[in-house]
Amino acid sequence: EMCIRDSCTVTLSKIQSDGIDLEKAQALYLTSFPESERRDAKKWKDMVLASTSTLFALYKISMDDAFAGILSCWDFESFLYIEHFAINSQQRGHGLGSATLSAFRTLFPQKPIVLEAEVPIEEMAIRRIQFYQRNGFHVCDSPYMQPPYHQDGKWLDLKLLSTSPDFASKQFETIKRTIYHHVYNLSLIHI
C-alpha cells in the first residue's frame, strides 16, 4: 500500500511485551542495521521488555493499522534521542518516514530531538542526511564519534543532527556525554 505524503494514517504505539509486534520489530531491526550499528538481539529484546521502567522505548510504526516500521528512542531530561529508525523496505519512498517523524514530534512537542547519521560522503548517507534536513533536522558542526556497540567494535565517525540547532550547539558536550553514558554504557570517566 502506498503512503502519499500527509494522506496516510501513521500511528506510533509502544511495544512493551512479547508477541507478534516484537517479533516483526526484531526482524526489521536485525535486517536494517549492520551488527556494528546495533545491540545483539537478546540484549535488545531485554531492553524492550524492561522499557516500562527505563528511559528507553520502542515504538511500532503502523500505517492504516499494518506494521510498517520501528523507532526506538531515549527520553532524556532535556532532549529525545532517536537510536534506531527503520521503515519496511517495501514501504519506503512514499512519505511514511516523514509522516512518522512528524507524528513523533507531536508526541513530544517540548523537547529537541537528536539522532546520529553517517557522515555524508557515500550516496546513501547523503540522501539520509537530506531526508532528515527536509524533516526539520540540522547537522551539528562539532565532530562526533559513535562508541562501539560491541567490545571489539570500532568507533564510527558520525554526525549528530538535531531539531534545534541552537540547543545542539550550546549543549553539544552534554548531549554527547548523555548518549555515551546511557545508550552506550560508557562510564563518564572515559568520556
What topology emerges from the helices and strands here?
Layout: E1 10-14, H1 20-32, H2 41-49, E2 56-63, E3 66-75, E4 80-87, H3 96-107, E5 113-118, H4 123-134, E6 138-139, E7 144-146, E8 156-162, H5 165-170, H6 172-182
Parallel strand pairs: 4-5
Antiparallel strand pairs: 1-2, 2-3, 3-4, 5-8, 6-8, 7-8
Describe, in short, the structure shown.
The protein contains 6 helices and 8 strands, in the order E-H-H-E-E-E-H-E-H-E-E-E-H-H.
Provide an overview of this structure.
- The structure is a single chain.
- The chain has 191 residues and is an alpha+beta fold.
- Helix content is 33%, strand content 26%.
- It contains six helices and eight strands, in the order E-H-H-E-E-E-H-E-H-E-E-E-H-H.
- The chain has helices at residues 20-32, 41-49, 96-107, 123-134, 165-170, 172-182; strands at 10-14, 56-63, 66-75, 80-87, 113-118, 138-139, 144-146, 156-162.
- Strands 1, 2, 3, 4, 5, 6, 7 and 8 form an eight-stranded mixed sheet that branches.
- The longest helix has 13 residues, at 20-32.
- The chain is globular.
- The termini are far apart.
- 25% of the residues are buried.
- Mean pLDDT is 90; it is low at 1-5.
